[in-house]
Design goal:
Organism: Haloprofundus marisrubri
Number of helices: 5
Protein name: Cyclase
Mean pLDDT: 97
GO molecular function: arylformamidase activity
Strand order of the largest sheet: 4-10-9-7-5-11-12
InterPro entries: KFase/CYL (IPR007325), KFase_sf (IPR037175)
CATH class: Alpha Beta
Structural class: alpha/beta
Shape: globular
Distance between the termini: 19 Å
Radius of gyration: 17 Å
CATH superfamily: Putative cyclase
Largest sheet: 7 strands, mixed, barrel
Pfam families: Cyclase
Helix content: 10-25%
């Protein structure tokens, strides 16, 4: 199995304007005889999933999706190397020729190596047509960067192309770590959100494992 999540801590970088992550002691063994930690974070902290309600006023929240929706037959699409602020086109995805049996395309841009630096904001993005291409073929999308849209985008066209079609978006995956060098091209991805009611997103623990899907497709 492979853990594809960034650890959460008080130093976890967040998208500008989002709530910071805070991990503080609430009770301690020394003072209280037990330990409880006060956790504070936004719904889009760290490695997380976006629900349609993230950008659509009447969109479905995460609680509208069955838990099975977060166990996915995933296919790694290695797009490296990509330039700063590159646009991922429909043609690039067509060239990758993902299996129609895949449920999730994991787009590897290589940008997770900049996690926690200013360069992370210069990540590649999906063209609106490429996002629609994924959604129309029934693919959810995961990326190793902050967003399928360019940093600072006001209208978030790739988000809309995916979420308006009720596809899920998983952001900030960790793929470039050397311990993930043997990650297969196809795998089962488990990415379960916290069980909150009516939220627009949630941190997820993204774990890849070998599966029959990887062997037979």
């Amino acid at each position: 199995m492979w853990d594809l999540s960034h650890p959460l801590s008080s130093t976890t970088p967040v998208y500008p304007g989002d709530p910071p992550v805070k991990v503080d002691p609430h009770a301690t063994h020394a003072d209280d005889g037990y330990r409880v930690t006060d956790l504070r974070l936004g719904t889009h902290a760290g490695t997380h999933v976006d629900a349609p309600s993230h950008v659509l006023e009447d969109g479905d929240p995460l609680s509208a999706f069955p838990v099975s929706r977060f166990r996915l037959n995933a296919e790694l699409v290695d797009l490296r190397p990509l330039d700063v602020e590159a646009t991922i086109s429909t043609a690039a995805l067509e060239t990758a020729d993902p299996s129609p049996k895949s449920e999730l395309l994991v787009l590897q841009t290589g940008w997770d190596r900049y996690w926690g630096t200013d360069e992370y904001h210069d990540h590649p993005s999906l063209s609106p047509d490429a996002a629609a291409w994924c959604a129309d073929r029934g693919y959810d999308v995961a990326l190793d960067c902050a967003s399928p849209d360019p940093f600072g985008s006001a209208d978030l066209p790739a988000h809309h192309a995916l979420l308006e079609r009720n596809r899920l978006i998983f952001e900030n995956l960790r793929l470039s770590d050397p311990t993930r060098s043997d990650l297969p091209d196809r795998f089962r991805l488990h990415a379960y959100p916290l069980s909150f009611d009516s939220v627009d997103g949630s941190p997820v623990r993204t774990v890849a494992e070998r599966s029959e899907f990887a062997v037979n497709n």
